[in-house]
Every structure is written in C-alpha cells, then in structure tokens.
Amino acid sequence: xxxxxxxxxxxxxxxxxxxxxxxxxxxxxxxxxxxxxxxxxxxxxxxxxxxxxxxxxxxxxxxxxxxxxxxxxxxxxxxxxxxxxxxxxxxxxxxxxxxxxxxxxxxxxxxxxxxxxxxxxxxxxxxxxxxxxxxxxxxxxxxxxxxxxxxxxxxxxxxxxxxxxxxxxxxxxxxxxxxxxxxxxxxxxxxxxxxxxxxxxxxxxxxxxxxxxxxxxxxxxxxxxxxxxxxxxxxxxxxxxxxxxxxxxxxxxxxxxxxxxxxxxxxxxxxxxxxxxxxxxxxxxxxxxxxxxxxxxxxxxxxxxxx
Amino acid sequence: xxxxxxxxxxxxxxxxxxxxxxxxxxxxxxxxxxxxxxxxxxxxxxxxxxxxxxxxxxxxxxxxxxxxxxxxxxxxxxxxxxxxxxxxxxxxxxxxxxxxxxxxxxxxxxxxxxxxxxxxxxxxxxxxxxxxxxxxxxxxxxxxxxxxxxxxxxxxxxxxxxxxxxxxxxxxxxxxxxxxxxxxxxxxxxxxxxxxxxxxxxxxxxxxxxxxxxxxxxxxxxxxxxxxxxxxxxxxxxxxxxxxxxxxxxxxxxxxxxxxxxxxxxxxxxxxxxxxxxxxxxxxxxxxxxxxxxxxxxxxxxxxxxxxxxxxxxxxxxxxxxxxxxxxxxxxxxxxxxxxxxxxxxxxxxxxxxxxxxxxxxxxxxxxxxxxxxxxxxxxxx
Lengths: 307, 382
Prior knowledge:
The complex is a heterodimer. By secondary structure, chain A is mainly α. Chain A has 11 helices and 2 strands. Helices cover 73% and strands 1% of the residues of chain A. In chain A, helix 1 packs antiparallel against helix 8 (203-225), helix 2 runs parallel beside helix 4 (108-130) and helix 2 (48-69) packs across helix 9 (235-250). Chain A has helices at residues 6-41, 48-69, 74-99, 108-130, 157-179, 181-191, 193-198, 203-225, 235-250, 255-275, 278-295, and strands at residues 146-147, 155-156. Chain B has one domain (2-366): Orthogonal Bundle (ABC transporter involved in vitamin B12 uptake, BtuC), CATH 1.10.3470. Chain B has a two-stranded antiparallel sheet with strand order 1-2. The interface between A and B is large, with 40 and 44 residues.
C-alpha cells in the first residue's frame, strides 16, 4: 500500500466503499426475498437467482418496448419496470408454490432439488426467449453520470438510486412483516403452524403469499441489477450462493442480521477487490464466512424461533 | 460363505441385482459398444462413484452434501498432477524458459515447482494422497460441523460454498493449478501410454471392478451395526443420541468414506479422460451427482449406478440432436422424481417390478410378499 498517499487511500476507500454499497444493495434485495422464504418458511429456493433474472428481463423487455413505441416515455419507464418486475416475479412465484413447493414442505432437502430443477427450466426459457447473449436495458438519462464531491471521488448516480430503492423496499418489508395484519399471520405461522391453523389463519394461503412476496422482491432486485451489470440466462445462478451465505451468516429468520451480513460481506469483498485480485477477494471473504459459521453455526443474530 | 452372502451381497435380492449390474458393465457393454462409446461409459461410471457415495451419505446418513465435487476434484487433480509432472520431464519441456515444470507454470512466470506439487513425483505417494487428502479434508469439515450439530440444510449450503471456494481458487491461481483450462496433455503413466485403445480398455475394466468393489464395501457398511445406526439417526437423531451414541462420530465416519469413494472416482476420471478441470469441481457437477443418486434411488447403491448411466446417456443423446430441450428435460426430471418418485428407479422397480416378473416362475423368490430388503424412504420426516 506504500505507493498511495493518505489522501488517495481515503478516496479509494470511499469509492470502493460505495462500489460495495451497490453490491450490498443487490445482495440485500436478493437476500431479503430469500430470508423471507428460507427464514420464515424453511424452503430452500435454489431458483431465487432466476426470479431475480425474471425481474431483470422484464426491465429489459419494457425498455426495448418503450424505445420502439413510446420514445417520449423513456425517462419514466424505469419506475414502471420496477413495479412490473415485482408483479411478474411474484406471479411466477405464486404458481411455482402452488404447483411445486407446497407438496414438499415436509422435506426441506427435496425442495432444494426440485427448485434446482425449476431453475434449469427457467434458465432455458430465458435462453429460448431472449437468446444466450447478455442483454442490458437502455437506462434513462437521469441514472447516468456521477456525483463528484472532491476531485478524486466519483460516485455513480445509479448506485445512489439503487441504494435508495433498497432502503424503501427494506422499510416496506419491515412494515409488512412487523406492523401489518398479514405480517402477524406470517409470523404466527412460522412459530406454530398447528396453533395458527387452529385460531383460524389459513396457513396455506399465508405460505403462498409469503413465497410470492419473496419472489417479487427478487424481481425488484433484478430491476436494480440491470443498472449495475448486464443480464444473461445464467446471471441468477452466479449470485445464488452469495445470497445464501448472506442469509445463513445473518442468521435465518432475522432480518436485521440479513442487513448486517449483506453489508459486511459486500464491503469486505469490494474493498479487498481493490488490493488483491477479484477472485482471491471472493475466496477470502467466503473462507472467513465458512470459518465463522463453523464456530457460530446459528449466524450473527440467532433466531428465537423454536424449531 | 453365509457371511459373504448376507453381508456383502445383501441376501438373494441384493445378490441378483449385483450380478446383473456386474454382467452389464463387465460383459454386455464391452461386447456391444465400440471403443469410443465404451470410453464414454467408463467416464459415466466414474461419476457413479460419486453417486454411490451420495447414496451412503444422503440416503442412509441423512446428510445431503452438495460438495461431492470437491472430493471428486481432489482425487482427479491429485492424479492429474502426477501425470502432468511425468509429462513435463526436462526432456519434454526443453523449449520452456524453466524446463522440468508443467507448461502452464512456465507461462505464468513460475521458475520453481510449488511445494505442494513435490509429493506427486511418486506414484505410490500419489495413490496414498488420493485416499488420504479427501478423507482428512472431509474429517476437518465434518468434525467442525457435526460436532456442533450443524446438519441438514446448513450442511448442504456450507458444503456448496466450499465447492465454490475451491473452484474460484483453482480458476484464480492459474500458475499453480492450470486455471480454467485445468490440467491437460496427460499422456503416460510410469512410461505407459494411456491414450491407446488397449490402455483405455484396461482402465475401463479397472474402473468397473473398483466400482463393484465400492458397492460391496458400501453394502458391508450398511448391513453392519454402523448402517443400522445411520438409519436410526436419520429418522430420530435425538433418540440415538440419548441411547448413548456419539451421533457426530458416525456422521463424520460416513462423510469421510463418501469423500474417499468420490475421490477414487475422480482419479479414475482423470486416467480415462486424460484431463481434469475446475468444471468437475463446482456447484453444477456436485448437484448433478446428487441427481444421479436421486434418479437411481437414494436408498439403493446399485440404483445410483443405473441412474448415472441413464442420465448421462440421455444427455449425450439429447445434446446431439435437441440441445435446447435437454435442460427442460433435466429440470423436469428433477422435479418429477422428487415429487412423484422419491425413491427413484429402485423405488419404481420395487413397487412395479413384480408386474413384469410375475410371468416368470421365479418371481416370488425375488419379490418376497412379506417385506423387501430396501428400507423405504420416510417421506413424512420433518
């Protein structure tokens, strides 16, 4: 590190730190959906990455539609794309739960295999519909460019937008889970399924909507992802392991844990990336996580749910 | 004699199944396939080692490892490192700036063989390392996880992450491992050319005998007391623990055995195919190995071999004619087997096999009315 001055080092940390925040936003959006599905329902959704890809492809589709038919609408389409990404992913998730997942609640390891099969099918669908090439939507003008507080620091606007989006979605999830009637039902079902059924909660319906919500949030993550990188048929599978690590490391069923672990994983990885190669940064981050999990298997914030 | 019959072959039904499999891979396939196809079957049979190890670990041990590719890769890489060192003798690599080291090291400006390559100069040491390194690694992972009662889903995810770490490490450290291309250009084993047809035939039979041997060892473990304890643990772990057994030790034991079996498969893979690359280590191959076992029947050692052969044959067929359909079919198979046939091919045979065989006089002998040999999968576990 000798060749950098203190001022430059500070700028590097600020910029890599902000690059980490973009990664943090996507990881957190992915992990929120997964934490709801895995933490609240105990279902291992290996197709979660593909639900993110659904969101990304919806954004791409809307962008090319708008560009061809409604060029004047370009500055605003992105906001609609986020909403559309949520609903399309949620609807696919709803049907996946109905057709597949609900039969396997009692066999968690089997949901893993079945959803892996689902992810293969979805990947091939993407490939057949959108081609094997990576695509990226045309972003509206106001998402391009960067903000420059000092000479050395460039902070991209799309990163700030994604951060704001993540903040809103996280707040929304917290409200839904901890302040609404629906969240009360979800938490009751998690804690004691039989009792919840006995007091008149339709636990099957709760499961279905919980799964759909988790998938929908993954769709939003996909829309946010398009501002950072391009999307290909296998993009989702690249992020699924990291996302699982975020959820497990944070402690399943603890949303605060998920936020904390997404933040630390993303920051560690992106700051390390500047000093050593990207692949070694990933190796070290994952290795440290595995070691920590071996000593503290319940994750950062242990869940208080009785299993 | 009684011991061999009951313990190693698993009684009448097991013995018949075993001999049918042995006849298929030792006699029928070599007679009817040309060398190219037979070599393909040999490659598939090396995956079958991993599938058999998953039957032991998952079907009977109840712990799903999504990282059998780690051990398959460790075995394969150990073998490949030995062959590569032999292929890059100072005479063969005289044009390099540093003769005597593998070509990819020379391209990456390494001037000296890294220390962990040194033992692979000797074949004896290599074979010992193929067996010991995966076992030791599995012991480390297993001891850290099972002693703290981490199991089930968490174990699956963490083994998967370890597979990712290993892949990224191999790809990233190109100078030490050959990177994404893997270790290629392997030609001789102690001076014997392994690319000829006769060598491939010998490896095919060596591989087939090893696989049958592994199945017998697996049978022996499962019919011994350890096997009964494993099954008991799978259904009610706490009761076994309260009976005074150290549950973790049994799980570590079966995990180590599974690791060694997968590593043997990896080493045989390198010998038959002639290279090793990180694409046989990561998540996708590891999950595919689980699928081979699931399709064949997670409670059946022999079924795992059939499952592996079936999936790989159909993959080869489909990707020759309808490449885009293959992933749909594979995905559909995953879902279908998990939802409708949790016991896989072996389970289907057990439920419906007597419809086929009842026309033969000996059917009753193979399908005793009262009970079957194969423990049924408990689908109501929580």
